Structure formats: C-alpha cells, structure tokens
Amino acid sequence: MKCWFERVAPTGDVIDRPEGKATLVFGRSSKATLVFDDALVSARHCEITGDGVFWRVKDLGTEAGTRVNGRPIRYPRALFDGDVLQFGLAELKFRSEVRADDPVLREAIARDPDAVEPWLVYADWLLERGDPLGERMAAARAGGRLDHASWLGPLGERLFQGELEVDWHLGLARRATFRQVVGQLPYDWHDAVSTLLRTRVTQFLRELVIDVPRLRPGPGQLQMEELVDAQRLIASLPSLPSTLERLSLGYRLADRPQALACIEELAQRVPRLRGQNVFQTVRQAKLRVLTTADGARLIGVSEGFRTLSAVTRVRRSTPTHLHFESPPGIPFIADGNPCHFAPGDGSWKLFAGRLRGEVRVNNHTTSVYQLLPGDLISVQGAGTFRFEVVP
Q: I want to staple 378 with a disulfide (CB 3.0 to 4.6 A). Which of 26, 30, 303, 384 is the partner?
C-alpha cells in the first residue's frame, strides 16, 4: 500500500515511503535515511518502521523529543493518515492509502495473527481514542499486572475456580479452555462459551477447547449425535472469531481411531480451521518437550517428545535432574510416590504425588489434573512440556 509524507514546514517536496517492510531514520547525520540540516534535530532523531501496510514512529532518545499532532511521544506510536510528525523545525504530514479504522485493523490481524505490526497499531489506534482496551494492551506490552476477571464479566468467577483457563497475548485471549474442576458438578457449557465469545478480549481467539464429555450432564459415553449438535451450536454463535485455528470438543480413549470432521456450517464460518477434526479418539498420548533446564536428564525422550505409557512416572533426583520412567506396579504406593500420568475415565490424568507444588498445568497447582490436548505442563527448575494426543 502506498504511503508518503507531505512537508508542511518547511514546505517542500513529497517524501515517498518504500513499499514493503522497511526502517527509516530521520536525523541530522549524513547516514540518516532522510537528512535534516537543523540544529534542533539530533543525528539520529526518530525512526519509522513498517511492514508495508502499517507504520510506527519512535523517538531515538533525543533531548528535544518527537511529537505527533503536537503531543510528545514517549513510546513507539502508530502513524495514521493525516497525522503530523514534528521534530525540530520540521513538520511532516503522514499520508496513507490504508484506512486505519477498527475493521481494517481487525481484518489485518485476522489474516496473519503472527504478524506483530497490526497488533501494535491496533493497540495504538484504541489508545488514541481513550479506549480502555487500548490501555490494557499498552499495559500488557509494558509488562504490567492486568485484571483479567473484570474483562470476562460473569465468567470472571469461573477463571478463579479453574473452570475456565485463558492464555493471554497483549492483554487479549489467545487460547481458552473450559473444563470440569475435580470434585465440582458440570455446568451448562453452551451459555458459558457464548458469553466468552461476546467479550472484547476474545475477538482474536486462536484456540478453543471445550471438555464436552465431562461438562455435559448425564452419565455414559458421548454420542456422535451430541457432537454434531455441539458443532452446530458453535457454528451458530454470532461472534465466532475469524482467527480461530483449533477447536477441540474433548477426547476419549479408544482401541480404534475415529474422527468427526467439522460440519459444513462450521467450516464455512471459520475457514482457518481447515476442516480439522474437532473430536478425537486417542491412539497415543505424548509430552512434547518445549524447554529444559541445564543439566536436566530426560530418559526416553526422542525427537523432542516422550510417549506416555499406561503409567509413566516422573521423579526428581536433584533440582535440575528429571527422570521419566514407566515401571510396572501401583504408582500410588511405589517408590517415593512420584508424579505420574495415567489414562482413566476416557481421558488422561496427571497425579502430582510428591512433586505437588513443583508441577503446574496451565499455571495451576493441584493434586490431580484432568489433561486436555494442548495443556502446558511445567516442572519447576527442570522443563516445560505440551500434552498432545495422536488420534
């Protein structure tokens, strides 16, 4: 997309910006991209960076400062069509063919959620308008503490109780999981999911996990008809995020793999799902190794993952030495009562054992975890792992 600067003061030529990703430096130095012969301008005064569509400016620590629309900027700030950039005696009006309104920025993020620039520009756009969501995203960028519960409305209490787990990115939800908390009764997940997807912080949600088999009322195995109904319900929600890439309606263990593909309505609503399965029967469960501490020893790990057997135990010999074992016997009373994984009730569980307090799942600590695909498991001082299943 074409963009350029118009010289307002001193008057002069139009400064074209290159297409594509670029970084420009304005200053008095002969090595600057654009040189300004002005004693009030530093050698390297301000920097303009962009991805070819959206552009941002930051002051390079100058004494005189850089202003946008007359206001000094302390942090990098997005440039929108019509903004006036000021430093020294120079005034440059930024012009762009890209409309910087909410739908345009939202669509840019949805097209490529991994691209950093649209996220930052969207936060700046909200912040310029005094939107509290922009302030939240700015606080997240600065590493400040955020109040998540208030932004989730009536679901805030479920967050505290562990029934709802959320992974955050720049103050917005990236992954959300609804699960049954051990010892508590299931609830109606339909209303909870609908409420969650109506909140502003879930507008760019990429992964949604709903443990339907244990959240639905009534005993017995989940039937295929119920799964189809669950998919139809999700497909009918009015605020389904276009960024959604993975949808899981729970899983169960079975001798033979079966899969139920996304129904047509759901695939049309959310093209990024690419028709992937939303319900899985599991042939194999494994831990994907994400990080390991120096000196940690992982027995039986190959190609970055550890396959879980019927009982896989985890023990610690030193603060950084972690051992995986799959011995026979009863793990509850076996040597040292170590942490262990085990299938049961149509799912996998993690029993913390003597590692309770050191083992966390999705940043929660308890004695028994009901594991879902994608859960993040961390062992303090040893490593982090992702629980995965092979349908």
A: 384
Quickly tell me which residue has 């792992």 as its tokens: 385
Look up residue 144 and give its two tokens. Answer: 């400040």
The DSSP letter of residue 28 is S
Instruction: Give first-to-last CA distance, the chain, whole Å.
Output: 43
Tokens of 157: 């209490």
Query: Pairing mode, if any, of strands 3-9 and 14-16?
Result: antiparallel
Helix (H), strand (E) at residue 268: helix 264-269
Give per-residue pLDDT as tens, 305-314: 888 887 788 8
Sheet with 259-261, strands from edge to edge, namely 251-253, 277-282, 259-261
pLDDT per residue as tens digits for the range 226-277:
778 888 888 888 888 989 998 888 877 665 455 567 778 888 888 888 777 7
Write the CB contacts of 87 (distance below 8 Å, at least 6 apart in sequence): 26, 36, 40, 41, 45, 46, 59, 62, 64, 65, 66, 67
* Residue 247 parent element (H or E): strand 246-248
Tell me the Cα Rg of the chain: 26
Spatial distance between the Cα atoms of 151 and 159, rounded to a whole number of angstroms:
11
Tokens 């909200």 sit on residue: 126
Exposure b/e, 110-135, CB count within 10 A at least 16 = b? beebeeebbbbbbbbbbbbeeeebbe
Q: For residues 201 and 147, give the distance between their C-alpha atoms in angstroms, rounded to a whole number.
A: 12
Q: Which residue is associated with the tokens 């244990």?
A: 214
